[in-house]
Design a protein that fits this description.
Blueprint lengths: L1 H26 L10 H7 L2 H29 L5 H22 L3 H24 L2
Helix pairs in contact: 1-3, 1-4, 3-4, 3-5, 4-5
Amino acid sequence: MSMLFTTLFVAMLLPFLAKAPLVFAMNREPGGYDNRYPRVQQQKLTGFGQRANAAHYNSFEALLIYASAVFTAVTFGTVDSLTVMLGWIFIGSRILYLLFYWYNKSSIRSLSWLVGMVASFVMAGRAIWGS
């Protein structure tokens, strides 16, 4: 079970990893990083900065789905090697998702998003309806 919670810990870190390129993009704007109104500044970003912003916020959205799947598996006592493998698939797909978003690879980015979501829902579904 600790490996599954390790994947959850890594998933919790991903939104903050995703913030680094966003900060870089905001710093490159005229006037630098606007710490008084960062979200207003983020809304004005284009190109890479806009993609970095979207990747950052999507990481929080995906975390909610994944955490729900992990806690469903733990609650129903269905944590096994397949559950852990699904967790690492989610993590791998989310790391790729960030890279694809930053480098503007939209089609493969969507595919990596789908892989992560399927892994999460399979994990939860196995717990709810049996393996």
